[in-house]
Structure of Alpha-hydroxy-acid oxidizing protein:
Amino acid sequence: MKRRRYAGTDYRKALNIQDLERIAQRRLPNFVFEYLQGGADDERALQHNRAVFDDYRFMPRTLTRVGPRDLSTTLMGKSHALPLVIGPTGYNGMLSRDGDIKLATAASRANIPFVLSNVATTSLEDIAALEGLNAWMQIYFYRDRDYVRKLVDRCQAAQYETIVVTTDSAIYGNREWDLRNFRKPMQPTLRNLLHLLMRPRWIADVLIPDGMPTFKNLDDLLPPGKQSVQGASAVIGQQLDSTLNWDDISWLRDRWPGKLIIKGILSPDEAEQAASLGVDALVLSNHGGRQLDHACSPVEVLPEARQRVGQRCQLFVDSGFRRGTDVVKALALGADAVWLGRTTLYGLAAGGQPGVAHALDILRREIDRTIGLLGVERIADLETSMLVPDRRH
Ligand SMILES: Cc1cc2nc3c(=O)[nH]c(=O)nc-3n(C[C@H](O)[C@H](O)[C@H](O)COP(=O)(O)O)c2cc1C
């Protein structure tokens, strides 16, 4: 039977994340939506990130006297309400004005951590000033290591406790949607400009108040006058450093007194090496299918990675999570929490901060219902034995 989908633009009517995705598509200019949605090359990694959840089915227990569920969990030493983190995504101000602040505020109200991207449109100091938020800062290693040093010092001055280093983007992924939509960086084609005119709400929210948002944490990297996205994208491309290696991680480990997370690992060997270096947590990730096409899904390598790192560090996972059942499968396979990328961005584009809150609420209810139906009350009670691998393929 064909499922009926919500066809409007009111985020409050979204029953699931897919509804929010469609609303986001209806509200954003197409070049912005495609920036958000696209994957690398033929998007096989992107598709596989969703397909992998079909490889596991649940085997519930039914007579276990399930009471109210408790979804709280400890992440990097702090208690949080849900096993979820809003992960780092760049250029959120293009989806909704002050997008980073809206995501961070929704995270704080839901009592989960928020990770600010290195290429954010809000300064790390402004995020640090938000009351009651557990904010972590994501950084890239650029060729200009002096910039990295200064950025780390800024994080310390702003009293961040946790830095996240992304390691899967030392070479820029090939996203052809982005390339097709622009004549030059940030100059949309005529077709896209016409489409833009049909999105007056977005123009009023994002464009009219301050023009296109600019990067707020790259001042020490970009030459004067290159803060605009147009100017910055060329500089960032040249600054990506493909020579990134373990010495850089050791250097940062020695320099940064706070907690350190590596994001972008897929190989269990590398996971083990990171744990031996004293890294506090890892995010198994293929960057939401935006970097290496045909990369394996983090969910496939999760059980072995957990076995190799043991309890030496926390293990997080992202890429393709859209349902509470997806999250519960990863937790049962050994993850400590799931990081969200597009899921909360759909909420942001569909309804601003309340839209993000709605996305988190959908997931909270789905996770709650799923663990209850599995016969348990707490995240810690989930076990791999509750999953049956699908052996048909
Ligand atoms: C629009 C967009 C921008 C992103 N920007 C960053 C970034 O600046 N830094 C980073 O480490 N990861 C970035 N990512 C990757 C996400 O942190 C995350 O790994 C990915 O979105 C997870 O996949 P999902 O979107 O399918 O959940 C970005 C992803 C998207 C969709």
